[in-house]
Write a structure and sequence with these properties.
By secondary structure, the protein is α/β, with parallel strands linked by helices. The protein is built from 2 helices and 8 strands; from the N terminus they run E-H-E-E-E-E-H-E-E-E. The chain has helices at about 15-25, 85-90; strands at about 5-10, 30-35, 45-50, 60-65, 75-80, 95-105, 110-115, 120-125. The two termini are about 25 Å apart.
Length: about 130
């Protein structure tokens, strides 16, 4: 089956604060890329590091004037082995827990959090 989701962008107001939040909560790194073009001269772009597996879905944190963060947009679920471990890091990183761990039967469990930019994101564990 063709992969439906190929790329995602999470919009930020405070780019450095958002990078710190995602690094702390998900223990991940970023590759910051310079965007030099007239249309997006103020853009900042940080791509989530991956294991170079071409089957993975890629994404980035983005700061640009035309796009604002906030709840009500696209909901992206991040995979995790254990949701409660991630939830325990959210508040200290400046985020909020919106929905605690919820069992969704054969699909595992989910939770919802708000990042430092006001975006709601999901957590998903298959176990």
């Amino acid at each position: 089956m063709k992969r439906v989701i190929d790329w995602f962008e999470i919009y930020t107001s405070d780019f450095d604060r958002a990078k710190k939040f995602y690094t702390t909560v998900f223990d991940c790194g970023f590759n910051e890329t310079t965007v030099n073009n007239e249309r997006h001269s103020q853009m900042r772009y940080a791509i989530f590091e991956s294991s170079e597996n071409k089957q993975e879905i890629g994404g980035a944190l983005v700061r640009m004037d035309e796009a604002k963060p906030g709840i009500g947009g696209v909901l992206i679920y991040f995979a995790t082995e254990e949701i409660n471990t991630v939830l325990n890091r959210v508040k200290a990183a400046g985020g909020k827990v919106i929905r605690r761990k919820l069992n969704v039967g054969d699909f595992g469990s989910i939770a919802l959090i708000e990042d430092t930019e006001g975006n709601m994101i999901g957590l998903h564990a298959k176990k």
